[in-house]
Amino acid sequence: MKMFVEPSEVFLHRDFVDFRKSINGLVSIVEDELVRDAYTGTLFVFCNKAKDKLKILYWDKTGFALWYKRLEKQKFKWPSKLSSQEFELTYQQLSWLLSGYDVLGHEPLHYQSPI
């Protein structure tokens, strides 16, 4: 079963979210903190502080849908060291995140020759 139909974009919200928030609270974060239009079909991914739960919010042309996943034993590899408030994911990276992989991988190293 496919969860989403060709999302135009996928954005990961870097900061942890209070999971008592439901659709209205998450839409408020999308519009106020991320300064994005929540009504575009874009997927917005949120994580709780314990990193064992994810919520994905999106507009599906008839209303908002909220997808929720809870891990029983493991933690999501959440990229909390991002400098920006959001990070754009590809659909493949979203699949990796949901499967337990680190979507950012290693941080790039920047060296300068001493010459």
UniProtKB/TrEMBL annotation:
InterPro entries associated with the record: Transposase_IS66_Orf2
Tell me which PANTHER family the record gives: BLR8292 PROTEIN (PTHR36455:SF1), PTHR36455
- Record protein name field: Orphan protein putative transposase (IS66 family element,Orf2-like)
Question: Which species is this UniProt entry from?
Answer: Pseudoalteromonas translucida (strain TAC 125)
